[in-house]
Amino acid sequence: TAADMTTLADIVKGGLPRLQGLCLNDNPLIGDEGVQALAAALGSCALPSLQELRDLGLSDTGMGDAGASALAAALSRGALPSLLGLALCGNKKIGDAGLIELAAPLRKRPKLKQLYLHANEIGDEGMQTLAKVLTTHALPSLKHLHFDCTSMGDAGASALAAALSRGALPS
What is the pLDDT of residue 46? Predict the structure, then answer.
């Protein structure tokens, strides 16, 4: 729940400076409100001990576009500078708006190696935005990109195929 996420933020604040992975997967009660609470703490730099965090798992947490937007805002403010892996799969309320919000801060994560977006409601508009990010070669380290079981149609698939055919990902 959101209250649990606030408590978690308080616990992590000064006590886990070497934490490299935070897996909150399979907690559907976290929802947007919980992710917003965590993102608020991350974005305010209230959690300096998470500067070394490399992997963040928020799959199957019940978050939607509002949670993705809050996470994007935190990342835009410099949260999680060492992020290598981001798992947002199984959050069926994340759609185009959520991925579009995340696109800009993801551009500033050239070390990101894993991005898991499968089993969400991301459609053509979100995938086209992701394809634009890939086309700029902003994610040169990306090795794993999962987007199966989304709502992507022909337009999104074509945009991704075009980006990939232009060498958007490392070979």
Answer: 53
